[in-house]
Specification:
The complex is a heterodimer of chains A (489) and B (95). Chain A has 489 residues and is α+β, with helices and mostly antiparallel strands. Chain A is 38% helix and 19% strand. In chain A, strand 9 and strand 10 form a beta hairpin. In chain A, helix 1 packs across helix 4, helix 2 packs antiparallel against helix 3 and helix 14 packs across helix 15. Chain A is elongated. Chain B is mainly alpha-helical. Chain B has a domain of 37 residues: Histone, subunit A (Orthogonal Bundle), CATH 1.10.20. In chain B, helix 1 packs across helix 2. The longest helix of chain B has 18 residues. The chains are: A alpha+beta (489), B mainly alpha (95). Chains A and B meet through strand 3, helix 1, strand 10 and strand 17 of A and helix 1, strand 1, helix 3 and strand 2 of B.
Chain lengths: 489, 95
């Protein structure tokens, strides 16, 4: 493990180290639920996507969706993790109105995926290694709404029985920022793999954040678990708040009690979750309705052969093959759509110039208009065509910026815009010469000045560009000006 | 293995069973008799026997990822007391 003492935070009694581990619930991308044939689509009418199995009617038996199993294996491979050929489903027992069976089918002692590792790039260039302890398959619960009636809670079981992957990290994270970056990387990997849509607004990914603090080098402190945090920013805020709370508590002479806490996104604070004292006694036992889940190595090999290029490998390739900086490469691979867009722009062109346009003008425009890359008004093909127009000297780099703006507004192809608006670069030396001669004739004082101060040439370039409506080829202008003003080189 | 009154009280609470205080001790006694009876199995030598996970010699059944169930909200609500707009309702539980 790298030295991460820079992450220590200051307390009244000296520096403290924050220790964070995440349990991430990721909804498996599948058409049907984990143990029933009901649909998983988001936003259906209440209880429309519920089978008798999901409603836990007596006598109903669960039958596992084999695609969900494959998705879990695929995810395990993407996390560089050990896949277990035999795993066991257990019942986790507790009572809550949105859990109709009174138990959740989960995996306890023998999960489908064992230890793995995720590499997380931090903005400061540091790469941290986060251990994965396990991944297991389990059922989601239904959804309770408490704000639809003065004295009743409403229960919708559409989510009940949808397959979740619970991905448990080791306590390898040392700041709220690292925790958020890890969650982001995990989301990127799952989206590349196509095993979870990563849509945090719809609850497809949620995190339980385990936080403790200790003096550097000491044993782990007592941890608190913050339940159901549903955005990367909130993970960071919750972890930072909780670490500070624990430090203040200990330094004030108190003691951290192991407990489950809730995060309030309005105040940015965590608070004790009441009524859970005995809830942790889940009395797990193997589900007698389900045999152990067994499969052959051949299934793992087949899935492995079908894995896409994952973000770490793709980033490496952008650096080694395209010569991009690790930072630019990291930005471009951070989601599969951006990477696909970039590769289309870069295909057959200078990859660095393509990267500059995508991470520069394109991202700035998308940010400004609050659009995702798939909604971009400028298609990858059109951006590529624009780069071609610069490369073959049809337009200057400066005019290209204007053409780009017009492309955003009109969605037209750059070639058509250049033709229709007469933006073609003037490389005809006689036209440029005429413009230069006119500028020189009109400004004898400046001509005298530039003889003494060659840096003044920039002023002439500006005048000539203005006269030609920005369409003069800057290289030609520089060359001709130097000659006419008798400037060096 | 045996249980005491305290364990019986806890298990009853976790299982949402109302066991009157005066029934706890007798029930612990009854449960201990059952546990002792089951523990006779410990007398068997099973050193060379593979753990059995099921009496049926078969593989876990699988289904394909196909939507072929659901859209029975009206039927589900027939069994539910006080359903409203196809939601199940329960006395308010708020955290």
């Amino acid at each position: 493990m790298t030295n991460r003492t820079g992450k220590l935070i200051e307390g009244a009694t000296g520096k403290w180290e924050v220790v964070i581990g995440l349990e991430v619930h990721a909804q498996v991308l599948s058409k049907a639920k984990l143990f029933s044939g009901a649909a998983t689509a988001f936003g259906a009418a209440p209880n429309a996507q519920v089978s008798l199995v999901d409603a836990a009617m007596p006598g109903m038996l669960p039958v596992i969706n084999e695609f969900c199993v494959e998705q879990a294996i695929r995810t395990g491979l993407g996390l560089n993790a050990k896949i277990n050929l035999v795993s066991v489903f257990d019942r986790k027992n507790y009572f809550y109105p949105d859990l109709p069976a009174g138990y959740q089918i989960s995996q306890y002692k023998q999960p489908i995926v064992g230890e793995g590792v995720v590499l997380v790039d931090m903005p400061n260039g540091e790469t941290i290694e986060v251990g994965i302890e396990r991944l297991h398959l389990e059922q989601d619960a239904g959804k309770s709404s408490h704000d639809m009636h003065p004295s009743l809670s409403f229960v919708d079981l559409n989510r009940s029985g949808i397959a979740l992957m619970e991905i448990v990290s080791r306590p390898d994270l040392r700041s709220g920022e690292e925790a958020a970056a890890y969650l982001k990387k995990l989301r990127t990997i799952l989206r590349y793999l196509g095993t979870c849509d990563g849509n945090m607004d719809e609850g497809s990914m949620r995190a339980d954040v385990n936080v403790s603090v200790r003096k550097p080098g000491a044993e782990y402190g007592t941890r608190c678990e913050i339940k159901n945090v549903n955005s990367m920013r909130f993970v960071q805020i919750a972890a930072e708040y909780e670490a500070r709370r624990q430090i203040d508590l200990i330094e004030g002479g108190g003691k951290v009690e192991q407990e489950t806490r809730l995060f309030d996104s309005r105040t940015g604070e965590t608070r004790t979750m009441r009524s859970k004292e005995e809830a942790h006694d889940y009395r797990y036992f193997p589900d007698p309705d389900l045999l152990p889940l067994e499969f052959e190595q051949a299934l793992i090999d087949r899935i492995k052969a079908s894995l896409p290029e994952l973000p770490d490998a793709r980033k490496q390739r952008y650096v080694s093959q395209f010569g991009l900086s690790p930072y630019d490469a990291g930005v471009l691979v951070s989601d599969a759509e951006t990477a696909a867009y970039y590769e289309e722009v870069a295909k057959g062109r200078d990859p660095k110039i393509a990267a500059n346009w995508v991470t520069g003008d394109l991202f700035a425009m998308l940010n400004r208009l609050n659009l995702s890359i798939t909604q971009s008004p400028v298609s990858a093909a059109n951006l590529g065509a624009l780069i071609d127009l610069i490369a073959d000297n049809t337009i200057s780099g400066r005019i290209a910026k204007d053409v780009f703006q017009i492309m955003v507004e009109t969605r037209d192809a750059p070639g058509a815009i250049v033709e229709a608006r007469g933006l073609r670069q003037v490389t005809d030396t006689s036209a440029i010469e005429a413009a230069i001669d006119a500028v020189i004739a009109a400004n004898p004082d400046k001509v005298a000045e530039v003889a003494a101060k060659p840096k003044m040439a920039g002023w002439f370039v500006g005048q000539v560009m203005q006269k030609t409506g920005g369409k003069a080829n800057p290289a030609v202008v520089n060359q001709l000006l130097a000659k006419k003003l008798n400037l060096p080189g | 293995m045996s249980v005491d009154e305290k364990t019986v009280r806890k298990v009853a609470k976790l299982a949402r069973l109302a066991v009157p205080e005066e029934r706890l001790a007798p029930m612990a006694g009854e449960l201990n008799k059952i546990l002792a009876w089951v523990e006779q199995l410990g007398e068997l030598d099973i050193k060379n026997v593979e753990p059995m996970t099921s009496v049926a010699k078969m593989r876990l059944m699988r289904r394909a990822d196909v939507v072929n169930d659901g859209n029975i909200a009206d039927d589900l609500m027939k069994n539910a007391p006080n359903a409203i707009d196809n939601y199940f309702t329960v006395p308010k539980v708020v955290e």
